[in-house]
């Protein structure tokens, strides 16, 4: 499963970030996922939750924030492509709705760990 290998990388990076900051646990992981990746967000969430089992992030909430695709064309058009769902996964052939030329995807292919939330150990239990 493609999503599992992605999830394992995301969890590894999150645990490294938490360890660097001296955190014993992770409260929340936020993943930015572009629509042009064709990665299923529900499957990715399940895989991230599975990959955290037995780790400092085992109880973390997993948020998947989907990013809409945006294209840019040399003719000056910029916006959301119309036919992304039929584009190939690794080399989308997205065409400009104004001139028909191939557009450059400037967003929507992201799949990254956007944030790692760790407990603020300076707060007392009452303040949390």
Model description:
- This protein is α+β, with helices and mostly antiparallel strands and about 130 residues long.
- It has two helices and six strands; from the N terminus they run H-E-H-E-E-E-E-E.
- It has helices spanning about 1-20, 40-50; strands at about 30-35, 60-65, 70, 80, 105, 110-115.
- The strands form two sheets. It has a three-stranded mixed sheet with strand order 2-1-6, with helices on one face.
Brief summary:
This protein has 128 residues and is of the alpha+beta class. It has helices spanning 2-20, 41-51; strands spanning 28-34, 61-67, 70-72, 78-79, 104-107, 111-117. The chain starts with a helix and ends in an 11-residue tail after the last strand.
Order of helices and strands: HEHEEEEE
Structural class: alpha+beta
Order of strands, widest sheet? 2-1-6
Number of helices: 2
In terms of per-residue confidence, which ranges show pLDDT below 50 for 5 or more consecutive residues? 122-128
> How much helicity do the residues have?
10-25%
List how many beta strands DSSP finds. Answer: 6
The average pLDDT score comes to 86
What's the Cα radius of gyration?
18 Å
Proportion of strand residues? 15-25%
Gap from first CA to last CA: 38 Å
Tell me about the largest β-sheet.
3 strands, mixed
Shape designation: elongated
């Amino acid at each position: 499963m493609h999503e599992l290998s992605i999830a394992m990388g995301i969890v590894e990076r999150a645990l490294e970030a938490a360890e660097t900051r001296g955190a014993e646990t992770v409260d929340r992981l936020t993943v930015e996922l572009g629509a042009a990746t064709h990665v299923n967000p529900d499957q990715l969430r399940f895989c991230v939750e599975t990959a955290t089992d037995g780790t400092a992030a085992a109880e973390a909430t997993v948020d998947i924030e989907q990013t809409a695709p945006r294209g840019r064309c040399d003719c000056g058009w910029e916006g959301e492509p119309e036919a992304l769902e039929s584009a190939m996964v690794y080399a989308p052939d997205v065409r400009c709705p104004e001139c028909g030329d191939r557009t450059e995807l400037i967003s929507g292919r992201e799949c990254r760990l956007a944030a790692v939330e760790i407990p603020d150990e300076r707060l007392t239990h009452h303040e949390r």
